[in-house]
Amino acid sequence: MAYTAASIISESGLSGSYSGGWYGLLAPAGISKEVIDKLHFQTIKALQTPEVEQSLSNDGASLAGNTPKELSPKEKRGNLKLREDNNLKLSEDNNLKLSEDNNASSKAK
Predict the structure, then answer these.
(1) Using CA atoms, how far apart are residues 65 and 48, in angstroms rounded to an integer?
(2) What is the distance between the alpha carbons of residues 35 and 52, in angstroms, rounded to a whole number?
């Protein structure tokens, strides 16, 4: 579903923004490579079904289907650090500050 009435961040006057997400499967430390490979194979197989591809497309998502190595802890940390750095720069460049009001709803829960 597309939200046609919503503005993109750059149209709101904030430049340099990035927003995105990703999903990954995690397993306990020490799990065998054989099990990881089997899980990866079956996951890719499921992701390539027309129903899943359509569902992802409807949500505006694209399928990457990375290998387990590409989702290693080092790669994950790098990806998260890149997003954190981008958000920090966006906040600094646009003089954005958190206030107590911004956190009120999460404290009330």
Answers:
(1) 9
(2) 23
Residue 70 is encoded by which pair of tokens? 């590409």
- pTM, full prediction: 0.51
Closest CA to 68 of 47, 46, 41, 30: 41
Residue type, 32: S
List the alpha helices (DSSP H) in the chain. Answer: 33-47, 50-58, 73-93, 104-108
Please, what is the Cα angle at 9 between 7 and 1, to 5 degrees? Answer: 50
pLDDT along the chain (109 residues), means of 10: 59 67 80 92 90 86 75 70 81 78 49
pLDDT value for 49: 92
Q: Tell me the C-alpha distance between 65 and 45, whole Å.
A: 10
| Cα–Cα nearest to 55, from 9, 23, 79 | 23
Tell me if 58 sits within 8 A of 1, measured CB to CB: yes
